[in-house]
Design brief:
Structural class: mainly alpha
Number of strands: 0
Number of domains: 1
Radius of gyration: 12 Å
CATH topology: Serine Threonine Protein Phosphatase 5, Tetratricopeptide repeat
CATH class: Mainly Alpha
Order of helices and strands: HHHHHH
CATH architecture: Alpha Horseshoe
Length: 97
Amino acid sequence: MDLEAFKETILKGKTPDGLSPPLAALWAEARGEWDKAHRFVQEEGDRRAAWVHAYLHRKKGDEANAAYWYARAGRSASELSFEQEWAEIATALLNDG
């Protein structure tokens, strides 16, 4: 699935089958379900989940917590707009397969 197809599922409100927890989190967040999105990545330990976790806390305005999760993800804090960072993360996760 590419980014445009992923976005289309969000508009239709139909969660694609087989999403990884980080992608499921991005999907839920895009639908305005921050708490649900957070639950998807809360217990995940890999860098991909940490990146999404960082994004979620950055979007919530919790910069200190976001910084912690960016470090866990091995990334610098993003300076992109929320929309740009969301697309960057989604694209990377979709390309990971």
